[in-house]
């Protein structure tokens, strides 16, 4: 009897420790008409892009996964059968998994990749500079054509050419920004060239203003959201990143 009690106590203690050392990341995946998407793969990755946690959305688009408390490199969402054919994925970056966290991905044909943000070093510190690399599925498919994508990318690298799959321009009326759910004013947009793994691609640096209400929330971080509707290809995309206050 005593042995059973000891085993029961150890089991309960283990569950309590597990609950204390983990949090729940949850949310709902939808398209840009707010239609829930089922069977979407949601993955949490480290900087080596290894999949640490993975789950699927249910028939109503909801997902939930219990993860160890720490900061993760990124979270992405896509229905795998759609990838590269009819859709490109959603990404969120610098995931602060220290308390239960809600993330609600949206994705379509414009991927908002590699998003990051920082405060310019000038008072009153009321703006963020946000960087991201948009990738259009329409332009990606045109780039690939009937040839092998890897061969084309290698040729571009060898010739030091730009793999041009981003919108030619982005205007303020094509871009929506928010911080912690509050609308943020887009102050300026600058197209830049990014070098990575031997290739050149286009990215955009955007300055946004912090909404007053966004700083009133009791959080250790700000969640910055970017929604892009490119008029050039009529494609939508969303990306998010978290920035420590």
Word description of this protein:
The protein has helices at 2-21, 137-144, 149-158; strands spanning 22-28, 41-45, 51-56, 62-68, 70-78, 90-97, 101-102, 110-118, 127-136, 175-179, 182-184, 186-196, 199-209, 221-230, 235-244. 28% of the residues are buried. Residues 6-15 have low confidence and may be disordered. The longest helix has 20 residues, at 2-21. The strands form three sheets. Strands 3-2-5-6-15-14-10-11 form an eight-stranded mixed beta sheet, with no helix packed on it. The chain has a four-stranded antiparallel beta sheet with strand order 8-9-13-12. A three-stranded mixed beta sheet has the order 4-1-7. It has two domains: 1-107, Immunoglobulin-like, CATH 2.60.40; 111-245, Immunoglobulin-like, CATH 2.60.40. Strand 10 and strand 11 (182-184) form a beta hairpin. The chain has 245 residues and is an alpha+beta fold.
Major sheet description: 8 strands, mixed
Distance between the termini: 53 Å
Taken in chain order, the helices and strands follow as: HEEEEEEEEEHHEEEEEE
The number of strands is: 15
Give the count of structural domains: 2
Overall helicity? 10-25%
Features:
about 240 residues, eight-stranded mixed beta sheet, Immunoglobulin-like, alpha+beta, 2 domains, globular
């Amino acid at each position: 009897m005593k042995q059973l009690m000891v085993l029961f106590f150890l089991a309960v203690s283990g569950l309590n420790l597990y609950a204390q050392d983990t949090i729940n990341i949850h949310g709902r995946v939808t398209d840009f008409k707010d239609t829930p998407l089922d069977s979407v793969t949601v993955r949490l990755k480290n900087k080596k892009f290894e999949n640490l946690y993975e789950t699927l959305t249910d028939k109503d688009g909801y997902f939930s996964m219990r993860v160890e408390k720490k900061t993760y490199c990124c979270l992405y969402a896509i229905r795998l059968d759609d990838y590269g054919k009819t859709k490109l994925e959603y990404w969120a970056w610098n995931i602060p998994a220290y308390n239960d966290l809600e993330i609600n991905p949206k994705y379509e044909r414009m991927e908002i990749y590699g998003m990051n943000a920082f405060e310019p070093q000038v008072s009153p510190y009321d703006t963020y500079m946000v960087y991201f690399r948009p990738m259009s599925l329409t332009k990606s498919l045109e780039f690939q054509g009937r040839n092998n994508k890897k061969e084309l990318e290698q040729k571009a690298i060898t010739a030091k050419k730009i793999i041009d799959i981003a919108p030619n321009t982005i205007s303020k009326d094509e871009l929506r920004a928010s911080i912690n759910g509050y609308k943020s004013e887009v102050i300026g947009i600058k197209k830049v060239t990014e070098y990575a793994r031997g290739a050149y691609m286009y990215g955009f640096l955007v300055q946004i203003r912090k909404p007053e209400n966004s700083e009133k929330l009791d959080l250790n971080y700000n969640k910055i959201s970017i929604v892009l509707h490119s008029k050039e290809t009529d494609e939508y995309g969303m990306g998010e990143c978290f920035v420590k206050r």
